[in-house]
Amino acid sequence: MLNSENEIPLSQFGDGIIEFSSEYRPAPGPWSSFVILGEPDTYPDYGDEVTAWASKTKDDADEMIAIAFDTAQYVNNISIYETYNPGAVSAVSVRNKENGSWVPVYSDGYELNLKAESRIMQIDFPTTTFLVDAVKINIASKVIKGWNEIDAVSISGFYEKE
Question: Which of 15, 54, 111, 141 has fewest C-beta within 10 Å?
Fold first, then answer.
């Protein structure tokens, strides 16, 4: 709930890659880190699609990807568009724009035995007291078998009009 008329609601999709553990093909190619940016282009389809990020190997190592957002904002929701072998998201952190520290907002671990269908994983938490400019997602790739593909990531909350 917004507390003043200066608070403008904002939802946005990632627009830059900060780092990643691996990618199936080099950016900007198919299954690269690059394809996770912007609005979903695989979801709601399910399957091994070139328009979703996939790691270099399917089950050899746990993975991570960190995504930047154009406008720093206060955040209370992250939506992760999982489009192949969902449930592997094990932890999520947001980056404090001021000091660059990563703050955990989800650490419940992976989810076993999910249906073989795409989903939007919604992570709700109390609104941050700092501006967020990035999200880091950890993937339990060794636990959830097969490639664990993500199509897009969005954050929601608000920013303050000056």
Answer: 15
